Amino acid sequence: MTDQDQHISAKLTFRHGVHPEEYKELSASAPIERMPFVDLYTLPLNQHIGAPSKPIVRVGQYVRRGEMIAEPGGFVSVGLHSPVDGTVTAIDLFDHPNGQMSPAIQIKIDPFSTQQLPKPNLPPVEEMTYPEFINQVQRAGIVGMGGAAFPAHVKFSIPEGKSCRYMMLNGCECEPFLTCDHRVMLEYSDALLDGTRILYQFTRGEKVYIAIEANKPDAIQKLKAAVGQTDLPLEVVPLQVKYPQGAEKMMITAILGEEVPTQKLPLDVGTMVSNVGTIAALSDYFRLGKPLIERVITVTGTAVRRPANLLVPIGTPMRQVVEYCGGITDPNPRILLGGPMMGMVQKNLDVPVIKGTSGILILTEQEVRDLDTYSCIRCGRCLDACPLFLNPARMGLLAKNGLWDEMEEYNVMDCFECASCSYVCPSNIPLVQSFRVAKSIIREKKARNKNV
Amino acid sequence: MADTTKTIISTSPFLHDQATTPRIMWEVVFSMVPVLLAGFYYFGISAVLVTVVTVLACLGTEWVFAGDKRTILDGSALITGILLAFTLPPGFPLWMAFVGGVAAIGMGKIIWGGLGQNVFNPALVGRAFLQAAFPTAITTWELPDGRYLEARGANLALPFFKDNTVDAISAATPLAKMKFDHALTPWWDLLTGNTSGCIGETSAGLLLLLGLYLVARRLINWRIPLAMALTVVILTSALYFSAPQQYPPPHFMLLAGGFMIGAVFMATDLVTSPLTPKGVWIYSIGIGILIVVIRVWGGLPEGVMYAILMMNAATPLINKFTKTRVYGH
Ligand code: SF4
Ligand code: SF4
After folding, report:
1. What's the whole-model pTM score?
2. Nearest Cα to B99, choosing from B48, B145, B159?
3. Predicted interface score ipTM higher than 0.95
4. pLDDT value at residue B100
5. Ligand 1 pocket: which of A376, A389, A420, A423 to mutate (most atoms within 8 A of CB)
């Protein structure tokens, strides 16, 4: 916010949305640091959407950094690798950031562990077939790094009858506070472009867009300059600074001016969307032989002493990550995984950083205190905020009365929980909060009906 | 159950926009101060007395009956009180004004379940009640005359006594002059407010400015005043240009009587107007049509109040049938 004049003017965007304060200055200019090794790593088998990975090591076994320790448990599943040289000490239930106990592999580091990776024994990616490439991406354990952790190879597989006309690299990072994608674009731009080249070799298509919100002028400039050096049909598109600009559908609408039909995927409008970190991970794997064993996360918030962007080995306990950043300054902090708009509350810091962790956000008690709730005054602000043109006011009223079927008629299932409605509601009604509940109830009901 | 609320409260988002409901209400209250000052300028202390009494009546009623006492401070009852006063003649008996305030909150808000639950604009409910209960007093008008510190008209009349000191002369409002004598009030007087009429309705120019301010601050929906004005202008232009001797000119319809205050402060009430843009258009055009119909063909000179109340009644239905087009559908 401070360098308004530095902002690059951008007209492209979607309709509606909100403008929360950005708070990016806390960590935006902090270069990516490598998080030092710690003693013990915990690697849950279900860090991605889909079937859990299947362990292929036993307790007591010595593993090398980058060695596969669990293989994909199905097509919608990925491999898992050790982030360090060390010994498997347990395969058991451990605390998972999702709040449950989940099976995980625990590895005790070999004190002599280095950053060394085993020599890659892959054929050059240029000689691979599409199915071989997909198979390798799956083995590399690569998932969407934007937060959803959907297996990347599934996204990269183009179903029969569909084609990928446009590829979009998502560098919007519209959540306040988070800056890891920003730093990745600045510091790993070579890997990003190389990863793009690797993927483009298979998907082809007319155009590759790199979408960046206009509040990251340095990244826009850097990538614009780099794009000039390649022979790919690349274009850097600055987008208006507006939340939730980084949501897949909103980004597609901003760039193509088209809506993604309800319940359809980006590929149904010929588009493949990937987070910039995911694409950079392709280059790491295919050129350096490094599977997804570490990722860049932002540790930030007004209650953390030294906000930073860190390259953290997967499996590092969050407590140690936070300690590395100088610790917490508030006696009663609120800890979130992800950004303040969609992030999840984390009560327990004794859980590992996983592939879907984009940020650890620590806010003071003061900032997150609950505001007074009033009745809906039908001001319509939530309708003007909802990027999907839903009617949150109406759905909120229906939710209060438990009228789930009526909520479905108001298309609550389309809601992707961006929280713009709750953000603007002057009566502070828990809109998105109740939609989450409603959606899961409706989903359960459907599943039950199917079984009967 | 307690557990559910807790999880709801402790889930994202953890950022919130600056605007809160009390803040919105208070900003509307402040925007009405200039209107009150204009009322004082034209009608002296009487304007202030009536306003104070209706406000006290509204706050008192809210205090006694509302389940949630925070509503005293959230500004909403204050708005109702001030708006009700704006729709009353300056010389209105104060005790009747008090009754009106009680009716506004009691019948207009409390019986519906409080803030946000009511279908009708509470201030207009109070005004409609007074119109039915005291038809003579509410149509007894004063001219602006520069008497600042004198309570005028029947302000100080005692409840239920015939007050002989009241001079029975009523200064006809511009709308009455038009309706019954086909006499046109100069547009400059309408714009500045130098006519007889209700405390807050006479200065059309000031109301227009405040309307623009409220739109700019996004406190009212711009579609409502715009659609109302366009509807009235289109309909009355058609009438006027077909038979100028018979019908009032369009600018007169906008500037005279309660149109401006209705369009800026009454019809735009958040709670009682529709939610969706499409619904808002229907609602506002409906009000515009009803105003013209009542003013031109009805028995009364003024029709803004009933027009708004009627469309308030239709609002739940409008909300039900104007669904927004959802993204990707
Ligand atoms: S923003 Fe809140 S108060 Fe306003 S209409 Fe929506 S739910 Fe009601
Ligand atoms: S209803 Fe859903 S999609 Fe719409 S603003 Fe609220 S959370 Fe976002």
Report:
1. 0.88
2. B159
3. no
4. 95
5. A376
